[in-house]
Write a structure and sequence with these properties.
- This protein has 119 residues and is mostly beta strands.
- A hairpin with an 8-residue loop joins β9 and β10.
């Protein structure tokens, strides 16, 4: 079981950068696939970036080339570096942990952190 806490959100100007952090407490962090999702106002939650237990990464087309996801299993932390931000990136960003071999359990969400991109 993991508890996830996001931080690093805030207000940033278009073209700026933010770095989100997701700190986990609990055991066996290294066996979880970690990901970042976001939900804009009136929109469905969407996958932004994913990093597997083998550190293979995937990104949505909307953020590819601008965002970078990384993890440090010793620190039990995953980051999302966001560059060249646009107003379309405004959303609540959520950290997610998924133990893939158990589809009915071992899935955890953080509370989310607000990112607002505005001039």
């Amino acid at each position: 079981q993991l508890n996830l806490v996001e931080s690093g959100g805030g207000l940033v100007q278009p073209g700026g950068s933010l770095r989100l952090s997701c700190e986990a407490t609990g055991d066996l962090f290294a066996v979880y696939t970690m990901s970042w999702h976001r939900q804009g106002f009136g929109k469905e939650r969407e996958l932004v970036a994913r990093i597997t237990t083998s550190s293979v990464t995937n990104y949505s087309d909307a953020v590819k080339g601008r965002f970078t996801i990384t993890r440090d299993n010793a620190k039990k932390t995953v980051w999302l570096q966001m560059d060249s931000l646009t107003p379309e990136d405004t959303a609540v960003y959520y950290c997610h942990a998924d133990y893939l071999p158990s589809p009915d359990g071992y899935k955890y969400w953080g509370q989310g952190t607000q990112v607002t991109v505005s001039s």
